[in-house]
Amino acid sequence: MDLSRRKLLSGTAGLACLQSASAATANQELPAKSEFTVARFETCLNNARWHPISIGAARAVQQYLEYKATGGGANPNYSTEVQAEVKRQFAKLIHASASEISFVPSTTVGENLIAASLDLGRHKGNVVTDALHFEGSLYQYGELAKQGLEVRIARPSKDWRTQPEKLIDSNTKLVAISLVSMINGFQHDLKAICDAAHAHKALVYVDAVQAVGAVPVDVQASGVDFLACSSYKWLMGDMGLGFLYMRGNVLGTLKRSQYGFRQLASMQYHAFPYDPPGEAVMDWTPSNDAGGHFEVGTISNTTVACLSHSLPWINRIGPAQIQAHRLPLLKKLQRELPRLGFEPMTPVDSTSPIVAFAFGPKKDSAKLAQRLRQAKVDIALYDHRIRISPSVYNDASDVDKLLEALS
């Protein structure tokens, strides 16, 4: 690999050219098979696990690695300029302001930060959630319940929906849900949840990791208070970096539970040569935006580089177009799989990126796995469930391959 300074400068400047090329691709009709290497090797219908990164995103990561290998002296500055643009692109995707967005290591960390800021372990009120929320979240609230917090969990109905809003009362402090369930793709009416919670002065937290990038999300229209989202699923990024949204007028009501240098708006030493005099070793002013409240230490610039390509790409296509492309594929699965003996677990009117089905003891999961491997078809397969999650590069032929493998 040629790591000359001239090569590096032309490569990093090439980010803009690369994104322009992606803009042309985004104006074409989906599926975007040519944008994803995975489409050449297998039929991947398991994008809810972790989404393959695009060829353009892989190039952006390689350009960052070249930048880092030479000492990071060339433009762009990933720790300032590129991070700021990535945060702005995510804010645009959910109709928020960049000042309302904090980087976090993962969705789970985001939810833990909210629970800590609300001091839920000491509250005498209750938290409302549902059985379709993420398992790590149910564990978190289960442990808080051992400390005395009342936790109310809505169970799914026969048509695989939940109604946590029915459990909200005047003692509810937080409603915590997955906007799109990882279990079966059920999607809440977020505005209805927020309206019900706010009527009782409760706040709403949303795990949106299976939603943002796959379905339209508007935090302003819904009124949601908190939203967290890792980047390695439908944002087509990688593990180790995500986002936490907090509604601006809620920020001042929360306490800081973590502290770190990324929260500082300014600082001044008074202990070293030529420092201005002062009684303390250091004076500081914390930032009053979401990042200043929740960001602590360094973040993954490798993932930032990946997102510098994928987020503008998703914004140009638009979640509504992505959703519209995917919907006929999911509808066909909902029609055909019950005929093959698979029991629907997703509401028939769902428009999320996930459909799930159960199967009884007459079907052998080991044999199903073998058939899928032989056909080079990737879905999520459990002992008595399957989960299918097509994306922008999938088409009807991919669904046909899956149906043939399962028949």
Descriptive overview:
- With 407 residues, the protein is of the alpha/beta class.
- It has two domains: 83-300, 3-Layer(aba) Sandwich (Aspartate Aminotransferase, domain 2), CATH 3.40.640.10; 319-406, Alpha-Beta Complex (Aspartate Aminotransferase, domain 1), CATH 3.90.1150.10.
- The chain has twelve helices and 15 strands.
- Helix 2 (55-69) runs antiparallel to helix 9 (301-317).
- The radius of gyration is 23 Å and the shape is globular.
- Mean pLDDT is 91; it is low at 1-27.
Gist?
The protein is an alpha/beta fold.
Key phrases:
2 domains, 15% strand, 15 strands, Aspartate Aminotransferase, domain 1, disordered N terminus, 407 residues, seven-stranded mixed β-sheet
Order of adjacent strands in the largest pleated sheet? 2-8-7-6-5-3-4
Counted by DSSP, the helix tally is 12
Structural class: alpha/beta
Shape: globular
Distance between the termini: 47 Å
The gyration radius over C-alpha positions equals 23 Å
Low-confidence stretches: 1-27
> What is the CATH superfamily of the largest domain?
Type I PLP-dependent aspartate aminotransferase-like (Major domain)
Roughly how much helix do the residues carry, as a percent range?
Answer: 25-40%
* Residue-averaged pLDDT: 91
Question: Beta fraction of the residues?
Answer: 15-25%
The CATH level-2 architecture of the largest domain is identified as 3-Layer(aba) Sandwich
CATH topology of the largest domain: Aspartate Aminotransferase, domain 2
What is the H/E order? HEHHEHEHEEHEHEEEEHHHEEHEEEH
Q: How many runs of DSSP E, i.e. beta strands?
A: 15
Q: Outline the biggest β-sheet.
A: 7 strands, mixed
Oligomer: single chain
CATH class of the largest domain: Alpha Beta
